[in-house]
Amino acid sequence: MMTSVPPRKPWWNSKKTVKVIRSYPTFPSLNAWEKFRGLLPVDGEPNPGVGLGVEEGLLCQMVHSPEFNLFPNSVVFESNFVQVRRSRHWKEIYKASNTLALGVTSSVPCLPLPNVLLMARVKWHHGQSQTWNRPSTAPSIILKRILPLKFVELQICDHHERILRLRTVTEKIYFLKLHPDHPETVFLFWIRLVQILQKGLSITTKDPSILVTHCLVPKSLCNPCGKSGLARKKPKGPRPSESLMQLMAQGESEALSQIFADLHQQKQYSSRRSKEMQINTTSSEKTTPSEDSIPCTRDLSWRDAFTYGEWERENPSGPQPLSLLGTLAASSRPRLSLTGVFSFRGLYLDRSEEEIAPRSKPESPQH
Amino acid sequence: MAYAYLFKYIIIGDTGVGKSCLLLQFTDKRFQPVHDLTIGVEFGARMITIDGKQIKLQIWDTAGQESFRSITRSYYRGAAGALLVYDITRRDTFNHLTTWLEDARQHSNSNMVIMLIGNKSDLESRREVKKEEGEAFAREHGLIFMETSAKTASNVEEAFINTAKEIYEKIQEGVFDINNEANGIKIGPQHAATNATHAGNQGGQQAGGRLLLSPFLAASCPVEHALCPPPSSFVLS
């Protein structure tokens, strides 16, 4: 199991445009988390993501509905946003009853990172709560667009106001303010997502030229000293590349789950802490870290103790869904003439907002 | 809103031929002279009525730029109809039809109805492709053909609706297996309710002028049935 992570540059040395103070989400407080938990059903195993309105929400329900039946086996991470524009203060563009549901998902569940962005327009009934997943009266929701994430740049625009800046490669820019009904934790997850999309994950790579000797191997293939059998063995079977992909995906799926895993970790962390208080243990190994030193997802051994998030549940070795957008997988990279940078991460690297030339419009009028 | 069928359409063709404008004219009845370059898919939907049945058109407007071609290919799957659009004022967009058609044939189901559209018919003075050429291409490749103007709305309704009529006829002829979602046709709650009633009406009862022999037949029965109550609700209309 991998525990080493390449060191990251401190944020103040970074040239990248996203300015995030903390590398990892810090939760408002565990008391706040308990408050969210209070919203969840008591019976069974509640899914905190559902309770927070970021999983199995309206957008997810729509794309998974028979009408679209898109990405049926992929989890959708989503939230409601209000579209705003810059002026002296941020101003809402539409009436309060109109929100925008923004979500990310994977065209194929085994992909290590989400690769699809979903946008839908939601029109709520008067006085209706605009956050929760299963309102008594369904609002009107219309799927507007599906964008490959590699053609989209997501940034944290205003942390205090909880505003995301979404820019497409065609220079269409949206300023999206997280709906006030969402708790602060939800915005922290979006920050986390932006970070992951921007920097990737240290244990995630699709580049075959990068030799990976750790981590991308399922536990069953790891020897006790943590070295991978994969590096020494040729993949067996008639379709080695597929086997390799499956193996990699299986390992990588741990990494891509970070957003959702954070949710589950918090839940586990909370319950573990309460258990520890009950038995009054003083073992140093089991000492609960302080809030500021939560190891989060870097320390995967720490994560092993916790419930797997939705992103981790897929089984790449099983039958893959016939995703309608399957070819959107990260391997396809269009050679777009209007910009030189089309690696999604490349959009961020060392390029300020002003450095990117405006995109040209189509020459002829469109009728 | 309840519907009997949902047809998935895909709009394809070179960049700048007016695909998004056609969609906007059809769904919103308005024309927008400058439109952002489409990336990914933009969606539109509209209800139409054919043979007294409510049909929902779910329209996928795709990117025309060559760079996005590999992605566009993934959207063909499950489309019942395609609008293949060229610009009558740009010969190159007509010349590229063969490539688009090959893509469409290769990545969609073989029964997909394809409507060839020569758009921007209002720009007669700048015409580079004769109407007869479009007709000949359509005849040669078994397509339906129309010239349209998204700007003036000329023939826009007809283009979308005639495509739906063709699909509907194919359903009636049994060409389309509507239970196979890969064909781009989904049975809506209206039709499902119809089927449920049909199942209960077996045993020689006649409903809507058609004798139903089995629930299986009822499932593919496209005829309007007055006895069937509309469904109470459908969440995502």
From TrEMBL, chain A:
Residues 271-291 have a biased composition (Polar residues). InterPro entries: GARIL-like_Rab2B-bd. Residues 141-208 form the Golgi associated RAB2 interactor protein-like Rab2B-binding domain. It comes from the Eukaryota. Pfam families: GARIL_Rab2_bd. Residues 271-296 are annotated as: Disordered. PANTHER family: GOLGI-ASSOCIATED RAB2 INTERACTOR PROTEIN 1B, PTHR22574. Belongs to the GARIN family. This is Protein FAM71F1 isoform X1. It comes from Mesocricetus auratus.
TrEMBL record, chain B:
InterPro entries: P-loop_NTPase, Rab_GTPases_membrane_traffic, Small_GTP-bd, Small_GTPase. GO terms for molecular function: G protein activity; GDP binding; GTP binding. GO terms for biological process: autophagosome-lysosome fusion; Golgi organization; protein transport. The keyword Methyltransferase does not apply. PROSITE patterns: RAB (PS51419), RAS (PS51421), RHO (PS51420). This is Ras-related protein Rab-2A. One of its GO terms (cellular component) is acrosomal vesicle. It comes from the Eukaryota. Belongs to the small GTPase superfamily. Rab family. The keyword Nucleotide-binding applies. Keywords: GTP-binding, Nucleotide-binding. Pfam families: Ras. SUPFAM superfamilies: P-loop containing nucleoside triphosphate hydrolases.
